[in-house]
């Protein structure tokens, strides 16, 4: 089967929808970042469900689908829902998630009732109003795009103008309040730009799916960097790219809605991020865990060599290591080969000896173990028979800087709590 979709690039409707939906995706990614970082992602879900009655009231008032009137209706309804949630949280004992669930379901139910009332009426302009539930990007007009652009510029201007204040409120609200920033004003502004973004986005992806467009791009971007500016840019990129792919897919296949495809691509972005992100991705975390586990096992082998030689065993064999400490035979073999490659061990006739470098490294590990045991007994008042397990774990985590602090604090001790020499 061959698909010819080159005709899309000659259709002005395609470019119109592509630009409009991509703009909405980029704005949603930027605005959603602040909700995500404030741990208020569910607010966007409540807002997206709450704008439906605003659409219906705007339509009843105007008698037509005037984009500006519907936008104003969405904005008012969304802000009322945000105020209601805040009022419930502040004046009752109900938690925020309970307030969000109440507000979103109430407003959506009210919107459904009003929508049924409109559909049952005889106004011919009602056709297509139900598309706001799941979105219909093909109905975006040039007038809609102009509104999107004006709203987008207004949103970006507010973010740039109040970037420092927003950043402080997002990351340290107490400090922001202490230096005189109006927390209520900044929170209200964040609510306004969130509601405005939802209001212009529901025509593309609908009331039901809009929350995904707000949350998913920023959730994916957050895994790739800790820098706020980079998170904002990545979220905008992910939102724009997913929206563009959704428009292309719905254009290639007949009777394919744009909104669900946009959300599907967003899910794929998030899923890919969860697997492959360099900082917190599943594969990255697994790789670091394996690397850490390998380093710990390697250090345990070196420590065992030191202990055996300290007890008078000069010719160390594999069975000596196994008797002193349990190791998996396959793992131990790999570690011994690795230590030989790094010139920490020498092997002659199945007998192993630590090299000069190996003795230095094994002494360091034993020193950290015994320093920590001494610190636990002298400074933390642990009993001598309760310190070995802790030292076994912590010895692999002590940095050179912390080692120097321990040495100074303990006045460069010569022996541990069990009267064993601390090697230097």
Oligomer: single chain
Question: What is the helix tally?
Answer: 17
- Specify the overall morphology: elongated
What does the largest sheet look like?
2 strands, antiparallel
Distance between the termini: 74 Å
Q: Low-confidence runs (pLDDT<50, min 5 residues)?
A: none
SSE succession: HHHHHHHHHHHHHHEEHHH
Radius of gyration: 32 Å
| Share of residues in helices | over 70%
Counted beta strands: 2
The chain-level mean pLDDT equals 87
The computed structural class is mainly alpha
Record the strand order, biggest sheet. 1-2
Beta-strand fraction estimate:
under 5%
Provide a quick synopsis of the model.
With 424 residues, the chain is mostly helical. 73% of the residues lie in helices and 2% in strands. It has helices at 12-37, 41-62, 67-91, 96-120, 131-134, 142-161, 163-171, 173-178, 183-222, 228-252, 258-276, 282-310, 318-324, 329-341, 356-378, 388-394, 400-409; strands at 345-348, 351-354.
Q: What would your notes on this structure say?
A:
With 424 residues, this protein is mostly helical. Helix content is 73%, strand content 2%. The chain has 17 helices and 2 strands. The protein has helices at residues 12-37, 41-62, 67-91, 96-120, 131-134, 142-161, 163-171, 173-178, 183-222, 228-252, 258-276, 282-310, 318-324, 329-341, 356-378, 388-394, 400-409; strands at 345-348, 351-354. The protein has a two-stranded antiparallel sheet. α1 packs across α2, α3 (67-91) crosses α9 (183-222) and α6 (142-161) crosses α9. The protein is elongated and about 100 Å long. The mean pLDDT is 87.
């Amino acid at each position: 089967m061959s698909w010819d979709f080159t005709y899309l690039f000659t259709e002005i409707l395609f470019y119109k929808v592509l630009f409009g939906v991509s703009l909405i995706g980029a704005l949603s990614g930027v605005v959603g970042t602040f909700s995500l970082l404030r741990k208020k992602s569910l607010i966007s879900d409540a807002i997206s469900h709450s704008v439906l009655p605003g659409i219906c009231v705007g339509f009843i008032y105007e008698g037509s689908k005037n984009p500006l009137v519907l936008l104003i209706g969405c904005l008012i309804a969304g802000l009322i829902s945000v105020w209601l949630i805040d009022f419930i949280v502040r004046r009752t004992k109900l938690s925020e998630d309970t307030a969000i669930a109440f507000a979103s379901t109430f407003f959506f139910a009210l919107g459904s009732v009003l929508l049924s009332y409109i559909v049952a009426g005889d106004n011919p302009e009602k056709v297509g109003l139900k598309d706001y539930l799941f979105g219909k990007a093909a109905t975006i007009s040039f007038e809609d795009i102009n509104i999107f652009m004006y709203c987008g510029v207004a949103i970006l201007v507010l973010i740039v103008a109040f970037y420092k204040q927003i950043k402080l409120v997002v990351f340290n609200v107490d400090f922001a309040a202490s230096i005189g920033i109006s927390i209520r004003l900044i929170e209200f502004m964040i609510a306004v730009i969130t509601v405005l973004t939802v209001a212009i986005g529901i025509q593309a992806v609908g009331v039901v799916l809009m929350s995904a467009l707000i949350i998913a791009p920023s959730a994916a971007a957050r895994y790739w960097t800790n820098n706020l500016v980079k998170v904002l840019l990545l979220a905008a990129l992910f939102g724009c790219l997913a929206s563009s792919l959704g428009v292309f897919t719905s254009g290639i296949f007949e009777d394919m809605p744009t909104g669900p495809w946009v959300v599907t691509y967003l899910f794929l972005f998030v899923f890919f991020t969860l697997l492959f992100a360099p900082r917190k991705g599943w594969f990255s975390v697994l790789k670091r865990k394996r690397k850490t586990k390998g380093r710990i096992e390697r250090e345990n082998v070196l420590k065992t060599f030191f202990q055996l030689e300290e007890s008078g065993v000069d010719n160390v064999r594999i069975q000596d290591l196994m008797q002193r400490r349990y190791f998996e035979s396959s793992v131990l073999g790999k570690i011994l080969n690795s230590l030989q490659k790094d010139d920490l061990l020498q092997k002659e006739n199945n007998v192993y000896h630590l090299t000069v470098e190996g003795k230095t490294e094994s002494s360091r590990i034993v020193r950290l173990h015994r320093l920590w045991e001494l610190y636990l007994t002298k400074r933390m008042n642990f009993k001598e028979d309760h310190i070995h397990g802790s030292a076994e774990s912590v010895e692999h985590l002590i940095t050179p800087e912390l080692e120097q602090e321990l040495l100074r604090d303990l006045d460069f001790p010569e022996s541990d709590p069990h009267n064993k020499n601390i090697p230097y």
